[in-house]
């Protein structure tokens, strides 16, 4: 058995990131500044020239996208129960009502074939999540968008480097929010970015992201800047800083390398676990998985232990794991506010009850990967009915 605990997740940070942050510190420009602008430009290049704003978080990006599209009280936004709280909270924060549609049993993504039934006169937006890094069917999504004149805000927190028919998520003409949180495929510690398909709204969102101050106010302390600013809206403090952007630039430069390693680990898992009575994550024809997560699902009827016990057994073997996600409708706050009850979104609940996210990150060694495979094999085989 392995000697040291293998954490569920670790960011891939090394000397390049250290140097970049030290240089940023020595520049004395530690808030939003030239590095943030450079990061935005490079993200834009990475996403085929889309307009990209670097922000404090993915949550900030989704919030601003809804606000900038005037989505608010009386409006409904359709999203998935199988996501992190942020996707629903931003809908609540603009005063709109979240409407949940159950997920596909294989990908864990919102079931787009059931979205149409949930659309009403009040529906203004769709907020799908590319769960684990597997793209939703973009053609089907955009068909719904166009047919019902909806705004689409993609929660792409897992989907940096995810593609649909070879084309990167973030380039399909929708508001698309990426997360650079510590656990995500590209990290700036905390941070995010929003792709804005409409350049006019980009200015509005940029202003909203920095207190509502007029354009270019961020450089008011530089030689080219001026102390004058005007407030054009009651904005937020949602900007990225140059310390974060310094990290982000290095991470973006090594993204391809990191993604290769994620794919490699996913392949090793698939090979090493293929013969077990478990459900491995799917990859539909149209998707290139970003492998943010490796959501293994147990066939609990075939096992004599529960999912929770399975995770405990992994821990005994010095392997960390997690679960993504506790469905939205099972949390007390949302139940109280919207009357959602257990049983309402059965696919999400079944996925949740069977799901274990295995450790998968670029800095894992082949020995680490081997240890995870052996631990899973050992637990499954010794608890088969
Ligand atoms: C991480 C995550 C978020 C939040 O990202 P932040 O950058 O922390 O705001 C939103 N949605 C999903 C699905 C996530 O996993």
Automatic annotation (TrEMBL):
Pfam families in UniProt: DegT_DnrJ_EryC1
GO molecular function, one term: transaminase activity
Active site (catalytic residues): 184
Keywords: Pyridoxal phosphate
This protein's record includes keyword Ribonucleoprotein: no
Modified residues (N6-(pyridoxal phosphate)lysine): 184
GO biological process: polysaccharide biosynthetic process
Family: Belongs to the DegT/DnrJ/EryC1 family.
Protein name listed in UniProt: dTDP-4-amino-4,6-dideoxygalactose transaminase
């Amino acid at each position: 058995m392995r000697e040291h605990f293998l954490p569920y997740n670790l960011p891939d940070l090394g000397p390049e990131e250290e140097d970049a942050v030290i240089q940023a510190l020595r520049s004395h420009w530690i808030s939003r500044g030239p590095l943030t602008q450079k990061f935005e430009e490079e993200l834009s290049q990475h996403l085929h020239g889309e307009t990209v704003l670097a922000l404090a978080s993915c949550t900030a990006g989704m919030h601003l996208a809804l606000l900038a599209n005037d989505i608010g009280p009386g409006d409904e936004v359709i999203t998935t129960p199988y996501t992190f709280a942020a996707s629903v909270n931003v809908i609540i924060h603009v005063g709109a009502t979240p409407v949940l549609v159950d997920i596909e049993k294989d990908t864990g993504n919102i079931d787009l074939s059931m979205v149409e039934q949930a659309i009403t006169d009040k529906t203004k937006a769709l907020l799908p999540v590319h769960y684990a890094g597997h793209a939703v069917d973009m053609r089907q999504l955009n068909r719904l968008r166009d047919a019902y004149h909806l705004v689409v805000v993609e929660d792409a927190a897992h989907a940096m480097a995810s593609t649909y028919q070879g084309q990167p998520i973030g380039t399909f003409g929708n508001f698309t929010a990426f997360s650079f949180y510590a656990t995500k495929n590209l990290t700036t510690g905390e941070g995010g970015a929003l792709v804005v398909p409409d350049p006019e709204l980009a200015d509005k969102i940029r202003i909203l992201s920095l207190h509502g101050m007029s354009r270019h106010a961020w450089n008011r302390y530089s030689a080219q800047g001026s102390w004058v600013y005007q407030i054009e809206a009651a904005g937020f403090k949602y900007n990225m800083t140059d310390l974060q952007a310094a990290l982000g630039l290095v991470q973006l430069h090594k993204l391809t390398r990191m993604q290769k390693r994620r794919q490699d680990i996913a392949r090793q898992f698939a090979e090493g676990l293929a013969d077990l009575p478990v459900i491995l994550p799917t990859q539909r024809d149209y998707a290139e998985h970003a492998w943010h997560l490796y959501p293994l699902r147990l066939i609990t009827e075939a096992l004599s232990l529960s999912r929770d016990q399975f995770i405990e057994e992994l821990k005994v073997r010095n392997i960390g794991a997690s679960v993504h996600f506790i469905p939205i409708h099972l949390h007390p706050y949302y139940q109280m506010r919207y009357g959602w009850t257990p049983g309402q979104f059965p696919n999400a609940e079944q996925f949740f009850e069977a799901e274990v996210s295995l450790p998968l990150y670029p800095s894992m060694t082949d020995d680490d990967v081997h240890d995870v495979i052996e631990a899973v094999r050992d637990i499954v085989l010794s608890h088969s009915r």
